[in-house]
Design goal:
8-stranded mixed β-sheet; 16% strand; 7-stranded mixed β-sheet; 374 residues; Rossmann fold; alpha/beta
Length: 374
């Protein structure tokens, strides 16, 4: 199979979808790899690195038009819509439940859109979202600590505190992978940490693995409202796979928070879990609403691309190999978890939460790919 690697053109996106090591693995399996020129520069991988691995360096036109399977990191943006075409398999983070124009563009093109974030195993793990969730979770307290500084608009609180002065209070909404990793780093920074979670079993697990060092509370609208009122930092870390994130903090709740507190909405890719959140970039990461600093960078792991690109390829490569070796239909038949990643194919929406988000018709994947055992 001919596998293309596109250069990311989204603002401040420095990751690339495949490392040279990954390219070499695919080439050794008998596949061609076409890498768009300078695609890896932001992750410290030059064209020469890919050429030494056996890949071909090509133009943007060739990367999109000659490939059977195209690998990206982020969803196509409007200038790329015209490159979407029938017969192409696009494997990337899509997050289309929060993006109706892209959903319609994918459906209209006839492309097969496979989303990293909805590949889901039978035991409900999200193996391709997990590495970026880990990184985003670890970045969130780091970013919040920075923007808590008074010259940057924050409260002027040091999360670690100092002898005789109480450390800052970090509230994490959601105890999944993002929330757990955020809690680890916040603890490492010396903060007091509270995690709100809805699953009692998950709270028991967090209590065990974090050795009781965080406060764990059952999440409810009242508990959220009361807890964030005393927070220096709030990290939104909730996820409903493939669907829009639920709004846990309303604008009205901001008036109860401490002026200069920082909100980091890690769920912004899925629409955000804060009513007042809208996507920002690494170049312009924060804005103020009612005295509360909002950090809503939509591609947080893109800020550490050397780490993120390697972690992403580690996770995605087995699935890329499966599609390349067997074609999409047979790969899905062999692995139902990959089938759950197919959001759009042949003009039809095959992921129910996406269809519901936009009021569009839903078609089960098995009706489009008869081999799919999903």
């Amino acid at each position: 199979m001919r596998i293309g690697v596109a250069k990311e053109i989204k603002t401040d996106e420095y990751r690339v979808a495949l490392t040279p090591a990954g390219a070499r693995e695919l080439i050794q399996r008998g596949h061609e790899v076409l890498v768009e020129t300078t695609a890896g520069d932001g992750s410290a991988f030059t064209d020469e690195h890919y050429e030494r691995a056996g890949a071909q360096i090509v133009s943007v036109e060739d990367a999109w038009s000659r490939s059977d399977l195209l690998l990206k990191v982020k969803e196509p943006i409007e200038p790329e819509y015209a490159r979407l075409r029938e017969g192409l398999v696009l494997f990337t983070y899509l997050h289309i439940a929060a993006d109706e124009p892209l959903t319609r563009a994918l459906a209209d093109s006839g492309i097969a859109g496979v989303a990293y974030e909805t590949v889901e195993t039978d035991d409900r793990r999200l193996p391709l979202l997990a590495p970026m969730s880990e990184i985003a979770g670890r970045l969130a307290p780091q970013a919040a600590a920075h923007f808590l500084e008074k010259p940057l608009g924050g409260r002027g609180v040091l999360l670690a505190g100092t002898p005789g002065v109480q450390p800052g209070h970090v509230v994490v909404l959601g105890g999944g992978i993002v929330g757990y990793n955020a809690a680890i780093i916040a603890l490492g920074l010396g903060a007091r940490v509270t995690v709100l979670e809805r699953s009692i079993d998950r709270m028991r697990h967090l209590d065990e693995i974090l050795s009781g060092r965080v406060s764990l509370l059952m999440s409810s609208s009242l508990e959220v409202e009361q807890t964030i009122a005393h927070a220096d930092v709030v990290i939104g870390a909730v996820l409903i796979p493939g669907a829009r994130a639920p709004k846990l903090i309303s604008r009205e709740m901001l008036s109860e928070m401490q002026p200069g507190a920082v909100i980091v909405d890690v769920a912004i890719d899925q629409g955000g879990c804060i009513e007042t959140a809208h996507p920002t970039t690494h170049s312009d990461p924060v804005y103020d609403v009612d005295g509360i600093v909002h950090y809503c960078v939509a591609n947080m792991p893109g800020g550490v691309p050397v780490t993120s690109t390697k972690a992403l390829t580690n996770a995605t490569l087995p699935y890329v190999e499966a599609i390349a070796d067997h074609g999409l239909a047979e790969a899905v038949a062999r692995d139902p978890s990959l089938g759950r990643g197919v959001n759009v194919i042949d003009g039809r929406i095959t992921y129910e939460a996406v269809a519901e988000a936009h009021g569009l018709d839903y078609t089960p994947l098995s009706d489009v790919l008869p081999l799919a055992a999903v």
